[in-house]
Amino acid sequence: MIIDGVLLAAGSGTRMRSSVPKVLSPVLGAPLLSYPYRALVRLHERVGAVHVVVPPGGVLGEEPLGAPGSPPPLYVVQKVPDGTFGACEAVISSPAFLSGSSTHLLVLNGDGPLVEETLLESLVALGQDRPEALVLATAHLDDPTGYGRILRDPSGRVTAICEESAASPPEKAIREVNAGIYLIPRTILLEAAGRIAPDPRKGERYLTDLVSRVVSRNGEVLTLSVSPEAMRGVNTQEELSLVTAVLRERINRLHMARGVTLQDPLRTDIGPEVTIGPGTLVLPGSFLEGATKVGGSCRIGMGVHLLDTTVGDGAVLRDYVVASSAVVGPRAVVGPFAHLRPGTELGTEVHIGNFVETKKAVLGPGAKANHLSYLGDVTVGARTNIGAGTITCNYDGYEKFNTVIGEDVFVGSDTQLVAPLTVGDGSVIAAGSTVIGDLPSGALYLTRPTPDLRPEGATRYHERRRERRKHDKKKEST
Ligand code: UD1
Ligand code: CA
Description:
This protein is α/β, with parallel strands linked by helices.
């Protein structure tokens, strides 16, 4: 038995009422489609290629599906969304399928993110005993509305699947439904190609019509009973939120089992690819997504949002830190309210304080920028202290320029560093300076305006202003 995976993802998803293609709807920061994809890829010992059926123009852009390093999907375009069988036909007429040697297709609806590899394994095991049979997963639902109903003859054998739109009232009362997960022999698909008639109501060719076709040709249809949760599909925004809740719980449980403390797992969002080391505490309202990797014994405060960010062991991210494509070194302390933008690399024990923004900023071990700074296109050496209000002026309206600050430098508060420039090791820049050129190592630099101190000047100032106000009022009233 050689199995290829198929994900159906070319439907129009109109019930979502959104401009975002349904299968790309974000679930904990990952596209909806990536969940069943991951389940298929995790079966890699059993499943070879994974064909993803997409509409013309694709749906995915640059978005990677599944874990980094997992095999890329084979995209197949379904030219018109003429139904789930049309989608399968697109696969079986694709060069990749025709030149491959798979004997079976494991077909999943792309909008069912809760399916797990254990379920797929059971389905495959069932098929292994009966390689000629069509195997499908079914579930018993309290409310089967919207799903295809499983019709059985008096002996209990499956005879057909009846879609909601075609169901008679007694059929609508059937609570056993089609889960949208199938193991289909290649021969059955090839035989049915071009022979499934469109549904008279919707004009779509249904994959589910394959069942009555197989039965009428004396083929065998087997079912695997699965839990209602495993098969839950997403057709509406409300259903999207329901599956998100289930996936959140599943993912958070795994982290807790591995020694991560989640103060309130219901209010903590962690994406499917995120890793967190043991002994780390994550406070509520935080969202860790993408390829984020957090080390052990870290403290992640409230409302922290990390995208594709690596955090070293023992680091502390105080409340409301936002970081994307950044690296935070071991035992670094960041925030509250800091913004680490792409290209930020904080070394060991770096301190970044409140209202500091960094972008393409590489800070050496022990460097500090504790208050109100913009550090962009900059390298900061070890142990250097960046005073409050320091700004790297990296942009002249046309181009970006780099600033290089050496080790053990003291940058006084409210300094503007007009790039490009280099500040040598051990320099001291006095508060309020505007630096417009390179500083050699060990230099002291200051720009000071001439002070103009007038004793009692404030009193005279206020007198003058009050006089003027009186004068103006008089003029108005005459
Ligand atoms: C489908 C099943 C139904 C089952 C339910 C389980 C059919 C006809 N019906 O209904 O029996 O109970 O799933 O969730 O299959 N798609 C394409 N191309 C198309 C149309 C759809 O790729 O032309 C894709 C969609 O993107 C989606 C999947 O197929 O991922 C299922 O399509 P959808 O329209 O959601 O089918 P349901 O009405 O939910
Ligand atoms: Ca659906």
